[in-house]
Amino acid sequence: MTTSDDSAPTRLDLEYFHRNFEAFTTSVCSFIRGSKQRNSVRLVLFCLFAEGHVLLEDRPGVAKTSLAKSIAQSVKDVVLHRIQFTPDLMPSDVTGTMVPVDPLGRWAKSEREVTRFTFRKGPIFANIVIADELNRASPRTQAALLEVMAESQVTADGQDHRVPDPFLCIATQNPVDQAGTYALPLAQMDRFMMRLDLGYPDRDAEMSIIADAARRRDSGALPQVVDRHQLLEMIDIVRHVVVNEEIRYYVVDIAAASREHPGIEVGMSPRAGIALTLAAQARAASRMSPMVTADDIKALTVPVLAHRLVPRVNSEGRAPDPSNLVRDVVASVPPPDGWGTRYRR
């Protein structure tokens, strides 16, 4: 960045971010086709630059894993690991485990050779982790992600082990009504900045997808548009996007309205408000704005909040759609007027 630690990003910073962001989007969308899919790509990138994690949920075969791989493969000099979650996967298969070693640090073949134990890192130690079909793993294994997603570290034998910086988890899951799936607990859902569904591509996009498949084109052919250093620079620019007091009050009032809504059993947590604010910073930077506006907040409420709410079941045993509940909550909260009058205390 060209600014000091406390100041807003400069015009040059924002132009740099916008240029790389659009190149990133164009690269991924050359493989992930469709207008709705393009919007999903942008939302995943908001999570990447806001240092959040994203959950892709949809039917099998709609390019959830391909989207995650395309984003990871568009960045140079980062470590990418893919974890295929299965019912027999153990927590240590994800985070790592303590192993016995001999005096030379090699795996000890017998008890006599053991001189100490050392931590062998699991596949979660990467810059970008694709957690594929997360809800096919047991709840115990799913819970292994809680600490690392919240704190970017793994604790083993009383010692903390940091994951690389930056760290992004892109998880995919099938709908919970699919056979062999386990619903993710609310505590883990709350760790994801956004939950997205890709949907089916439009007719022209699906034609292009089939043409790519016929030519055996895969995401490995995508250009690497940014490197790790540029990625960290862009993250730093997002951190400096201004969130003024009006916007903070607006987010807090949305949270309060969600907790008081008659159709919602469990409303927004403080973590949800933080996630909404950070994602809005990334959206503001993508449109070259040095500060977050109410429109940035409103545009991201459904993907950031819907998966965190627990709808209240009515007397007929039905629950309202969480996305509609979010829209209802946001509509009930007047946005800032831009002059600081509505939120002045």
Automatic annotation (TrEMBL):
SUPFAM superfamilies according to UniProt = P-loop containing nucleoside triphosphate hydrolases
Domain called ChlI/MoxR AAA lid: residue spans: 257-317
GO molecular-function terms, A-Z: ATP binding; ATP hydrolysis activity
Source taxon at top rank: Bacteria
**Name of this chain's protein:** MoxR-like ATPase
Question: In the record, which residues are listed under signal peptide?
Answer: none
**All residue ranges annotated as the ATPase AAA-3 domain in the record:** 53-194
Pfam families, A to Z: AAA_3, AAA_lid_2
Q: Which gene encodes it?
A: moxR_1
